[in-house]
Amino acid sequence: MITLTVNGKRREVNAPEEMPLLWALRDELDLKGTKFGCGVAQCGACTVHIDGEATRACVTPIGSLDGAKITTIEGIGETREGQALQAAWLELDVMQCGYCQAGQIMTAAALLAKTPKPDDTAIDDAMEGNLCRCATYKRIRAAIKSASGQPVDDLRSA
Amino acid sequence: METTRRLFLQAGAGIGGGLMLGFGFARAEGAQALTDYVSIAPDGRITIMAKNPEIGQGAKTMLPILIAEELDADWTKVRIATAPSDEARYGAQFAGGSMTTTMNWEPMRQVGAAARWLLIEAAARKLSASHDAFTTAKGQVVHESGKTFAYGELAADAAKLTPPAADSLKLKDPKDFKLIGQSQNGYDSPKIVRGEPIFGIDMTLPGMVYAVYVKSPVYGARLQACDLTAAKAMPGVTDVFILKGTDWHGLQDGIAILAKSWWYAQNARTALEPVWDDAVGAPHDSAVYLEKAKALVKGTGEVKQQSGDIDAALKSAAKMVDAFYDVPFLAHVPMEPQNCTARVTASGVEIWAPTQVPNDGKALVGKTLGVPPETVNVHMRRAGGGFGRRLENDYMAEVAAIAQKAGKPVKLVWSREDDVAHDFFRPGCYHNLRAGVDAAGKLTAYACHSVTFSRDGQVAQGAGIDGNAFAPLVTPNFRLEQSLIETTIPTGYLRAPSSNALAFVHESFWDEIAHAAGQDPVAFRLAQLDAHLNDKANYNPARMRAVLQTVAKRSNWGKTKLPKGEGLGVATYFSHRGYFAEVAQVRVADDGQWRVLKVWAVGDVGSHIINPTGALNQVEGSVMDGIGSMEAEITFEKGRAVQSNFHEIPMMRMPKAPQVDVHFVTSDFPPTGLGEPALPPVIPAVANAIFAATGIRIRKLPILPETLITKQMASA
Ligand code: FES
Ligand code: FES
């Protein structure tokens, strides 16, 4: 039995230590907001926070998480950044299929927690690992800026 | 197809005494069944059914907007539900071909107008007044005396009335539209940002087990033997069994591993050592395909289209352009891996699927299990992208067969590696193009010999090469020849099928011709269009001219001085009934790394942009998707895909995402779809911009940075 602290609650998981957190969340704890996209840390769909760090749950074994604080998309609305990002995502109607967006919001929330007003380069660096197959990047960039109280223009050279 | 159907409608009492309005699409032969699109509760809440799958193009929001517009519903009080899949009751239900808008623009507005008519009629009877003395506004029927009724008050009475014939309904004058043309957010978006379980892969059923299905990476290989003992002993595994393949679109030979949760099943794959007879794949190699194609274009192919005297025209040309283009296979890789959930009982089969074609799935599952398709019910789940991959229901056939044998509900989830290995790939293609220009710089001849792929002797799915409407229209002497390479690799339809390859080939070549003729690429295209403005063809030159002129203006074409290493390129393309002209600004660094800085996209998709925020999102995404595809390819060795996951399939990511300026030109034609037509022209626009920046002509995708350095250094 492994004990995980997810969104402030202690949860027991009866599974081997090597089970990736992604599958413990989705199938054992019925928290399906965290998404499976690649399984090899290449797409960011499974991004969660572990002690505040954006982390790929698909390659994080639950055995490594003793005492760690895990936050998922289901809990991110409890944080200031998460709330602001969710509101901006809706205000700018970012979604197409929406499948990647939980991971995008989680990565963006970790960015804003460290860098309250990220510029375009900081956004590029932080978000590069999060694939959006529908390519809603223009709106993701704008929503991050809007959530951090900045004008939404893309200021990279063009 | 659209014109042989008409609407029948019938009102009826809804749950709680409200109005439920059903519309059936009857086929020409008169088959008819009824269902419910609109229901109004006594408290005024309106539920509207979205009839088509939602795969990310916003159909679930757009279709109800059409109904709500004519109904004069208060949009803030509208609830949207996904309809059951039942074509007898709902008509065609699919997400593909950018057809949702085209096919539903009129019928869905008629649904709304009929509901409104019934509510007015109920009010008219209440007041013993004339139907014509009423109007509606935001969920209310208003009498000319000023007396108003909330829709909810009238719903029970309206439900007892007989609605008029659909084509007798008067639709709104567009100047009175209140919702159409105003941006409405995606209906499911609040759920998405909270991580609610609304996707196919989020489905759960009581007593469900999880499955993986192990197939040969070589398509068409047969399973010879596999010892299941070790896999059965793996932790969490509940069962392992072998299934025999039945259909190249559906179930193939494989081994099902069932477990108490998905990771256990996935983990147990390592305990299998299947023996495949995969000789079938041996001849199928990307390098072999290329050699075959190069040989084939030297000969003659089947003539698909011909006008004038191409040989004479080429011979007498003052200048000839001759080029070989090479386009790779591509994978769809929608963000949500293939998955499906099924329950098979004696009374029928229940399927929960992210699919673009639910009703095709019923037929396939019926065939696979040997049960009547009518006993198969497919519930449409939100899909994490489609891009054409989910026009195939192979995962649905697999899970149905697994669940039947397991005797309990099963959720099948493919790994990303399964998804890449077992795609229905966008087929590659090869083209030899020749064009002749006279001494005055006028185009006189255009010949194309295309080599594409066949399956069982027929042009393979998604491999058609005759989708370019511009060149044959504007060229006096034209010929299109086709040669085929037989393949066992499954091919299919990728977003803007055929066009996504043909636009690159023909529109890049068009740029080559313009340069050979010593003309500006925009002016050269405008001249061709101008000469054919009155031609009555599928392709409307006037519409294309308008978008091309607009994009030239918006991008300041011909008027910008760019720094060294940067260039602008232009291309146009007509596909899926949409006209798009796009300009790309590209920067190529000394080391050959290239990046698109900005794209201007101008489109004409008819008289109205129904939901502007969704429309813009589609164009922005299509443009970036197209550019991303210019770095990707799938290659084959002995019938198996070499690439396996995103580390080997480059896609558009945030740092390379260009700025996109989107503009719509409206025209007098009925609105058409936007899932696809903005994608094809961006690829040649970028390739042409790279030429403008470097003098290097891109005739092969993907673009590798090293090919941009060598030549740059050689020319320096
Ligand atoms: S699923 Fe974890 S990064 Fe893709
Ligand atoms: S919205 Fe579809 S993958 Fe990002």
Describe this structure in words.
The complex is a heterodimer of chains A (158) and B (716). Chain A has 158 residues and is α+β, with helices and mostly antiparallel strands. Chain A has 2 domains: 70 residues, Roll (Ubiquitin-like (UB roll)); 72 residues, DNA polymerase, domain 1 (Orthogonal Bundle), CATH 1.10.150.120. Chain A contains 6 helices and 5 strands. A 5-stranded mixed sheet of chain A has the order 2-1-5-3-4, sandwiched between helices. In chain A, strand 1 and strand 2 form a beta hairpin. Chain A is elongated. Chain A starts with a strand and ends in an 11-residue tail after the last helix. By secondary structure, chain B is of the alpha+beta class. Chain B has 3 domains: 189 residues, Aldehyde oxidase/xanthine dehydrogenase, molybdopterin binding domain (Aldehyde Oxidoreductase, domain 4); 156 residues, Aldehyde oxidase/xanthine dehydrogenase, molybdopterin binding domain (Aldehyde Oxidoreductase, domain 4), CATH 3.30.365.10; 323 residues, Aldehyde Oxidoreductase, domain 4, CATH 3.30.365.10. Chain B contains 19 helices and 29 strands. The termini of chain B are far apart. Chains A and B meet through helix 1, helix 3, helix 4, helix 5 and helix 6 of A and helix 5 and helix 17 of B. Bound molecules: FE2/S2 (inorganic) cluster (FES) (2 copies). The site of one FE2/S2 (inorganic) cluster has 12 residues of chain A, from loops. Chain A: GO terms for molecular function: 2 iron, 2 sulfur cluster binding; metal ion binding; oxidoreductase activity. Chain A: This is Isoquinoline 1-oxidoreductase, alpha subunit. Chain A: Keywords: 2Fe-2S, Iron, Iron-sulfur, Metal-binding, Oxidoreductase.
Bound molecules: FE2/S2 (inorganic) cluster
Rg of chain B, Cα atoms, Å: 28 Å
CATH top level of the largest domain in chain A? Mainly Alpha
Fourth CATH level, the homologous superfamily of the largest domain in chain B: Aldehyde oxidase/xanthine dehydrogenase, molybdopterin binding domain
Q: Strand percentage of chain B, roughly?
A: 25-35%
Q: What is the name of the CATH superfamily of the largest domain in chain A?
A: [2Fe-2S]-binding domain
Major beta sheet of chain A, specifics? Answer: 5 strands, mixed
User: How many domains is the backbone of chain A divided into?
Assistant: 2
How many runs of DSSP E, i.e. beta strands of chain B?
29
CATH class type of the largest domain in chain B: Alpha Beta
Structural class of chain B: alpha+beta
